[in-house]
């Protein structure tokens, strides 16, 4: 009798797809691939690593292409997809993904997916899964199903089409591709050039990116394969996210607030390039704060500057103003769909309005802590106007002491009314929005008038 594998990648992937598509859970761990099965006779490290990689690939790919795969499966089912057992329909999506988007031979994809019905305790679905997957060959996506054609939900297609009338299809297409793995070299350890040579010696090719500390790997690798990762010599961070540190233009001795800091990539980059500033990093989510403090230890920073705090209020503030504020606001994440395809299934148009409300509140609140002459950097990893220029527009209307600062001397992205927008492109950085706002100093005349009795 054939020995059972410790982790069946198709079973694991179907469970993840089920969690995302039917339970509203995120693709992030613990729903990502299982990594160990204790005490199983077959649980040797290389098999586990290979199976974990395959289940991650199947889960991410199935979620990335969920809308088109659902359309295909729906066409060949005898009953409506919506009426099917949700775990079995998730397994069908994983099966269809293998047939349409991987090089796994069809017979293996079908046989292994059919076999997975047993571990999923759905033996009655064996015949159904077999029939549906075999019927898929030669079936095309129905042209009248826009969600399936673009692999995006309708609300997002409409929002991107509205904001980018000339390039919306290219953006949606890029969203369905895989993001490159970019690195941030810790210049306190060594130069980018030196680390590039270290990578080369380890058999890893990389080229310099658009930020002085960034390197783009030719092929993605797990972090444990990056030389000196554990010692803090390098971090994985999208290049678009690495633009924040330079835009802040912090000077020695500046006091800086990172108001939505976790997991901390932008603050850590700033501290690696500008260690002579004082930083307070707060985040409302205690678990994310704990993770950021742990990351401080890897990178060699004292974690005491990272605290739990809600930036829609000022409980955390000691009354000393900041020279620079980074507000990397919570947002839809619409610029990061390549890395987080689950956003397409988990977020909706109503969420957008809620994000805008919190973005407005955060901007107005942290503004009170900015010193006159200081600068606020507002940013999101969204490509949608509602979360970007529209938030700035509202803020500037309400704050007479706020002055937008033009971002003319940068070569990336495109100018918007108040800031600069990067949109995802194949092989390029994630979508980010950045806008700088300076706080005007009080006018001398007004101050003199106030002093006159
Ligand atoms: C886009 S992420 C920040 C990413 C981070 N700046 C980085 O570069 O790694 C937004 C963060 O805002 C936090 N957040 C949401 N609401 C908040 C609030 N009211 N006050 C402070 N942080 C908040 C979330 O917990 C989340 O960690």
| CATH superfamily heading of the largest domain | Vaccinia Virus protein VP39
Output the CATH topology of the largest domain. Rossmann fold
Q: Strand fraction band?
A: 5-15%
Structural Rg: 25 Å
Describe this structure as you would to a colleague.
Helices cover 42% and strands 14% of the residues. It is of the alpha/beta class. The chain has three domains: 9-150, N-utilizing Substance Protein B Homolog, Chain A, CATH 1.10.940; 182-236, Alpha-Beta Plaits; 240-445, Vaccinia Virus protein VP39 (Rossmann fold). The strands form two sheets. Strands 5, 6, 7, 8, 9, 10, 11, 12 and 13 form a nine-stranded mixed beta sheet that branches. A four-stranded antiparallel beta sheet has the order 2-3-1-4, with helices on one face. A hairpin with a 5-residue loop joins strand 2 (206-208) and strand 3 (214-217). Helix 2 (45-64) crosses helix 4 (86-101), helix 3 crosses helix 4 (86-101) and helix 4 runs antiparallel to helix 5. The longest helix has 20 residues, at 45-64. S-adenosylmethionine binds at residues 241, 259-266, 282-285, 288, 310-312, 328, 330.
Helix-strand layout with pairing:
Blueprint: H1 9-23, H2 45-64, H3 66-76, H4 86-101, H5 106-119, H6 126-135, H7 146-150, H8 154-163, H9 168-175, E1 182-185, H10 192-201, E2 206-208, E3 214-217, E4 234-236, H11 243-248, E5 255-258, H12 265-273, E6 278-283, H13 286-299, E7 306-308, E8 322-328, H14 343-346, H15 349-367, E9 370-380, H16 389-398, E10 402-405, E11 414-415, E12 420-422, E13 432-439, H17 444-451
Parallel strand pairs: 5-6, 5-8, 6-7, 8-9
Antiparallel strand pairs: 1-3, 1-4, 2-3, 9-13, 10-13, 11-12, 12-13
Helix pairs in contact: 1-2, 1-4, 2-4, 3-4, 4-5, 5-6, 8-9, 15-16
The structure holds S-adenosylmethionine.
